[in-house]
Write a structure and sequence with these properties.
The chain is of the alpha+beta class. About 25% of the residues lie in helices and about 25% in strands. The protein has 5 domains: about 1-30, no CATH class; about 45-105, SH3 type barrels (Roll); about 150-285 and about 430-585, 3-Layer(aba) Sandwich (Rossmann fold), CATH 3.40.50.150; about 295-425, no CATH class; about 590-705, no CATH class. The chain is built from 19 helices and 33 strands. The structure holds S-adenosylmethionine.
Length: about 700
């Protein structure tokens, strides 16, 4: 019981005691425990391509921040506007006039917006059956909403490295950089993160997935509480990781060498052992293998003359070189040639090197006993090189099996035991403090980026190997995993997923979202030079244009942007020349926002096609179409679109000739017709209804999309 209840119990007057108890109980209901932070005005989005019309919410292009106006009338390109607060009329400041060309349309929470993906490049180096990575230049809040249409509950891992809210104007809330003097900077950061985490949660596979979030000293306590609040019931662990062993000096403070990584285990997510404890450099994978001894002896003591009883043949089947039987020892008086070789076998004698005959390590009787217990096997046989290695388990190994130090986990094709050290797995369990040379952000983040795209600057990219290692714990055995990073920055996550695929031939794919932000100083300079966001001269300076896309193109192709082979080798888990690139495919998109009333039907079809391709798993080269035909089957992607529903019968016939189709989009405004067509097509296909007003199918920012999932 809390102190207050104890004190209440001591009130002698019964009625007063009951009255105060009731008041306190009511008060307690309104008091929140845990993370409490101020709500902020909902985030708005500027849509430079939409026309300014009466009734629209607008902002002045040249102004940062969120000063909004509602257009009342437009006369001779002059708009008369009233001040508005995200949609509501504000006191005063009515009838202000601005040239229409100075205004930009703004959408606030609840105003539907219609996103479209516009291709801005691709790299095709993977085999046709490899799914494509997707990299999107956009504000993540809206793109996450769009992704819900394609991947709700389907994402295996989300890795994010959000702005750390350092106070150094490193991120924007509602179009304004947040600096250290902003008294609301923590609640704005929390507000921004909360909205995105709610959407992220809906994207993650509820039965088995992981959310990984990196953070530093500025927000780690608040992030911990936020995650706990958003992911109740999930195991959440914070790992401390050394990323800068030299330390960042702080006046009168400990020099910081670390940051933090939060892991949220969703559903049945399991840590997959990688043979590394992350704290030390011990290679448990190598250590946990119990050593099998070579059967062939070497050295003077191993000469045949010293071990006549250990000179005998081992018979291997000619068909597959598996062990047929173990022969008997022969003395000097019996010639090898006179030994009877069983039908269909070859005899392998102890090795003869430099004119010296050696022996096997045991007498044949012992070897037969060992074999019966599963302790004898061949190694990699190469008859052309006369190489026939044999291995056996020593008496010591069998003793360890008996006392449990070594455990038997199965039998191999020669009936040999598959064994490992019992504590191998235990001692390799990854620790919650990581100290890996590979995770140094300077050497393997910033310097690596310089090799890939010389001369381009990006603040604090992660070490490539740090991202790779964090993901490996959860997707090493999920070779088709879908990975999302919605604070993509320089593109490290896409690069890391490509490396994981290279290591095991996997087909994992990533979706990376990052905005095309310019730094606060650059924004100031550009504004002074008369440019504004949305103009090509401004956008060309953004992170996506300058860093994200060129870095991923360079990593995949192995060439710098000016066409030179990239020098140096990758290190750690998989070492090979950076110039080799990766056999992976990636397509880059920008998000555009369209006006469904102003877009021609063909353009709208074209605009949603990339979304349909994504929904069908990003497979096969993406194609363009205006959708003027009765149906559309891309050459490679596994989907089809029935555009004219009257042609359903012919569409079915055409479908029967195509083997690879898995997704079918049926354009109809009638739920009933959709149901009928879906039933006729059967369960073999994922059928999706598409409204004829194509853009309506993917509208976002509405209460249905946000409030249903609780992201408002
Ligand atoms: C800390 S960086 C991520 C660095 C990344 N892990 C790397 O290794 O390069 C965060 C990135 O998120 C981007 N970003 C911030 N807010 C965003 C938003 N609302 N939507 C999309 N991207 C955003 C920033 O432009 C920045 O590049």
């Amino acid at each position: 019981m809390a102190k207050i209840e104890d004190l209440i119990l001591q009130i002698p007057n019964e009625r007063l005691r009951a009255g105060i108890a009731a008041e306190v109980k009511a008060l307690k209901k309104t008091k929140k425990f845990g993370l409490v932070f101020e709500e902020h005005l909902p985030e708005t989005v500027r849509l430079p391509r939409l026309p300014v019309k009466p009734g629209e919410l607008v902002a002045l292009k040249r102004e940062a921040g969120n000063q909004l106006w509602r257009v009342k009338t437009i006369h001779k390109n002059i708009a008369t506007c009233d001040r508005a607060v995200t949609g509501y009329p504000a006191a005063g400041e009515a009838n202000q006039q601005f040239p229409v060309s100075d205004l930009v349309v703004v959408r606030s929470f609840g105003d539907a917006i219609y996103p479209a993906l516009v291709s801005v490049g691709r790299v095709e180096r993977g085999s046709p059956d490899k799914p494509w990575h997707v990299v999107i230049n956009a504000e993540n809040f809206h793109t996450l909403q769009l992704l819900l249409y394609c991947y709700e509950g389907k994402v295996d891992a989300i890795y994010i490295d959000p702005p750390y809210n350092s106070g150094a104007r490193d991120w924007k809330y509602n179009n304004d950089y947040i600096d250290k003097n902003d008294p609301w900077r923590h609640s704005k950061w929390l507000s921004m993160m909360q909205k995105r985490l709610k959407l992220a949660k809906r994207l993650l596979n509820p039965t088995d997935s992981v959310l990984i979030v990196t953070i530093d000293e500025k927000e780690f306590q608040r992030l911990a509480l936020l995650l706990e609040q958003q992911f109740p019931g999930c195991t959440i662990q914070m790992v401390t990781t050394v990323i800068n062993p030299k330390g960042t000096a702080r006046y009168n403070e400990f020099s910081r060498v670390e940051e933090y990584v939060f892991f949220v285990f969703i559903g049945a997510a399991k840590l997959q052992s990688t043979g590394k404890d992350m704290l030390t450099n011990r290679d448990y994978a190598a250590e946990s293998e119990v050593r099998w001894r070579g059967l062939a002896r070497t050295g003077r003591k191993g000469l045949r003359s010293n071990n006549p009883g250990s000179w005998y043949p081992i018979f291997l089947k000619k068909s597959d070189f598996s062990i047929h039987s173990i022969g008997d020892a022969i003395g000097r008086e019996i010639a090898e040639a006179s030994v009877k070789v069983p039908h269909g076998t070859i005899a392998v004698w102890p090795p003869n090197k430099d004119g010296h005959e050696y022996s096997w390590s045991t007498v044949p009787e012992t070897l037969r006993t060992i074999q019966a217990k599963g302790g004898f096997k061949t190694g990699r046989i190469n008859p052309a090189k006369n190489s026939f290695p044999f291995y056996y388990l020593s008496t010591g190994a069998f003793e360890k099996i008996a006392n449990g130090e070594i455990v038997v986990t199965g039998r191999g094709p020669m009936n040999e035991l598959i064994i490992e050290f019992a504590d191998g797995a235990k001692s390799a369990a990854p620790r919650s403090v990581w100290n890996q040379v590979a995770h140094d952000a300077g050497s393997h983040g910033t310097s690596l980026l310089q090799r890939l795209i010389p001369g381009k600057k990006f603040p604090f990219p992660k070490s490539l190997y740090a991202v790779e290692d964090a993901l490996r714990f959860f997707i090493q055995r999920k070779t088709n995993a879908l990975v999302l990073d919605f604070f993509g920055g320089s593109g490290t996550t896409t690069h890391a997923v490509a490396r994981l695929n290279k290591q095991d031939g996997g087909s994992r794919r990533s979706i990376l979202i990052t905005n095309n932000e310019v730094s606060a100083d650059e924004a100031e300079a550009l504004r002074q030079s008369g440019f504004e966001p949305g103009q090509p001269d401004w956008e060309v300076h953004g992170i996506f244009e300058q860093v994200t896309r060129p870095r991923i193109v360079a990593a995949f192709s192995g060439k710098t942007p000016d066409g030179h082979a990239i020098s140096g080798d990758y290190k750690f888990n998989d070492e090979f020349p950076i110039a080799d690139g990766f056999e992976e495919n990636v397509e880059f998109f920008s998000v555009d926002f369209l006006d469904p009333d102003a877009v021609a039907r063909g353009d709208a079809f074209q605009a949603i096609l990339p979304i349909l391709w994504m929904m069908a798993g990003c497979r096969g080269v993406r194609e363009e179409s205006k959708g003027s035909q009765a149906w559309f089957f891309p050459k490679q992607a596994p989907f089809g679109v029935l555009i004219k529903e009257k042609e359903f019968r012919a569409f079915r016939e055409a479908l029967a000739e195509r083997r690879q189709i898995e997704w079918i989009y049926l354009v109809t405004d009638s739920e009933e017709n959709f149901g009928l067509m879906r039933r006729t097509l059967g369960r073999k296909f994922h059928c999706v209804q598409l409204y004829k007003n194509y853009l309506e199918n993917f509208r976002i920012n509405t209460p249905e999309v946000l409030i249903e999932g609780g992201a408002a």
